[in-house]
């Protein structure tokens, strides 16, 4: 059996040799040396400023590796902010995004030194301005004008639906028409100098991404002029995809850079930003899980695994499975299996995927591209299963960062 392209065989022996009764319900592994190399390649350009969307994977070792590659950090919650600051990241390298920013949260972020915000509503804009006024009155020496980007939601005649909403109405930002009620001069305590737009996830076509980016330029630059903004920064979010289904649709990073260089000229901005999540870290991660049962049901082979969407919920959300391979070697021909987890719901399915037809109970499967939207996007509490362990593989060694935890650790 030839291992798939996404599987780095340098990690194979460590996974084969790993034996731990605590990990009998599955565990995650992140290959940090491979991640470091990938990040260095992404940074070999001068066109865009790169941020890491912490929602993709907030593990301490992942954040530290991104820090060493000079990434900045996009945080969308108080917990993400705490985790990034705990790794020694300076708050002036943090961008606060997310649709649910309360005045209290904005106050806390400002007090902790965060200076860059994506504002997603008229309320948030007003609250942030008030926070800065209040800080200036109580702690004038600490008062600074934060950099503010307004998040814009556009609609096109032809759109598509995906987890970020695509052409659907979402809570992310406001329409051009709503933002036109604002005048930058009315907020003298804020440096409102940028626009943010991000509506599509897991895009796999350079041509389509460039087409969408190009269509954004005119309405965004027009909006900036209408509200008296000197448009210095354009944040295009992320959305760069991973070919989970192995359909030969990998994005060209060099083409992304070439296209964005053109967008930068078209928009006339000083800075272009991208917030990478899965494109930065997905390839470094694996999820290993044992097979509990094998059965034939209505002429379909089924494998029941020790864990399913309680550890990997993305397939149920997107109907796109993580790719899988058998950990041990096999020369048996492959066939398609339905892969199910242990939860008492038909939603607990990880895909209809090919595996060697000699796969058996107690074999271990390895899922790929699990460096993003794995551990922290899971739903581990249903049926009181254990929380998965997280390991890193670095310099040839497998090191446990977070041990598996039984249900007693979180049940009251």
Can you lay out the helices and strands and say which pair or pack?
Blueprint (H helix, E strand, L loop, with lengths): L11 H6 L9 E5 H11 L5 E6 L6 H9 L3 E4 L2 H9 L7 E3 L6 H9 L4 E4 L2 H17 L8 E5 L24 H4 L11 E6 L9 H21 L6 E3 L17 H15 L3 E6 L1 H4 L3 E13 L2 E6 L8 H5 L5 E3 L7 E7 L8 E8 L7 E4 L21 E6 L2 E6 L10
Helix pairs in contact: 2-3, 5-6, 8-9
Task: Please give a structural write-up.
The chain has 412 residues and is α/β, with parallel strands linked by helices. The chain folds into two domains: 9-29 and 283-409, Lyase, Ornithine Decarboxylase, Chain A, domain 1, CATH 2.40.37.10; 90-276, TIM Barrel, CATH 3.20.20.10. Helices cover 27% and strands 23% of the residues. The strands form two sheets. Strands 1, 10, 11, 12, 13, 14, 15, 16 and 17 form a nine-stranded mixed beta sheet that branches. The longest helix is centred in the middle third of the chain and has 21 residues, at 206-226. It is globular. Residues 160-165 have low confidence and may be disordered.
Give a quick set of tags describing it.
412 residues; alpha/beta; TIM Barrel; 2 domains; 11 helices; globular
SS class: alpha/beta
Number of domains: 2
Helix content range of the residues, please? 25-40%
Task: Name the CATH architecture of the largest domain.
Answer: Alpha-Beta Barrel
Helix and strand element order:
HEHEHEHEHEHEHEHEHEHEEHEEEEEE
- CATH homologous superfamily placement of the largest domain: Alanine racemase
- Uncertain segments: 160-165
């Amino acid at each position: 059996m030839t291992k798939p392209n996404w599987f780095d065989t340098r990690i194979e022996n460590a996974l084969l040799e790993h034996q731990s009764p605590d990990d009998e319900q599955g565990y995650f592994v992140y290959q940090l040396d491979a991640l470091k190399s990938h990040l260095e390649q992404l940074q070999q350009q001068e066109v865009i400023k790169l941020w890491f969307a912490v929602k993709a994977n907030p593990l301490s070792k992942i954040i530290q590796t991104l820090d060493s590659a000079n990434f900045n950090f996009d945080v969308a919650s108080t917990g993400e902010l705490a985790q990034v600051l705990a790794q020694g990241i300076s708050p002036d390298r943090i961008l606060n995004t997310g649709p649910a920013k309360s005045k209290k949260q904005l106050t806390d972020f400002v007090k902790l030194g965060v200076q860059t915000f994506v504002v997603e509503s008229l309320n948030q804009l007003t609250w942030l301005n008030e926070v800065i006024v209040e800080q200036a009155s109580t702690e004038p020496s600490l008062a600074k004008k934060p950099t503010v980007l307004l998040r814009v939601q556009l609609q096109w005649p032809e759109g598509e639906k995906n987890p970020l909403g695509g052409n659907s109405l979402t809570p992310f930002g406001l329409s051009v028409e709503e933002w036109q009620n604002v005048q930058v001069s009315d907020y003298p305590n804020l440096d409102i100098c940028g626009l943010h737009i991000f509506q599509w996830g897991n895009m796999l076509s350079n041509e389509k991404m460039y087409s969408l980016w190009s269509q954004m330029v005119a309405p965004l630059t027009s909006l900036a002029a209408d509200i008296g903004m000197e448009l210095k920064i354009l944040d295009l979010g992320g959305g760069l995809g991973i070919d989970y289904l192995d359909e030969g649709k990998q994005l060209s990073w060099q083409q992304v850079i070439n296209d964005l260089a053109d967008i930068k000229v078209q928009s006339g901005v000083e800075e272009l930003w991208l917030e990478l999540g899965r494109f930065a870290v997905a390839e470094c991660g694996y999820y290993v899980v044992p097979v509990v049962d094998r059965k034939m049901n209505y002429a379909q082979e089924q494998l029941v695994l020790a864990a399913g969407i309680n550890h990997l919920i993305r397939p149920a959300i997107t109907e796109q499975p993580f790719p899988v391979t058998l950990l041990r070697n096999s020369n048996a021909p492959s066939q398609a299996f339905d892969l199910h987890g242990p939860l008492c719901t038909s939603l607990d399915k990880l895909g209809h995927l090919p595996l060697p037809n000699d796969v058996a109970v107690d074999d271990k499967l390895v899922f790929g591209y699990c460096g993003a939207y794995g551990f922290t996007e899971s739903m581990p509490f249903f049926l009181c299963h254990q929380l998965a362990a997280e390991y890193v593989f670095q310099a040839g060694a497998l090191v446990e960062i977070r041990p598996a935890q039984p249900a007693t650790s979180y049940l009251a």
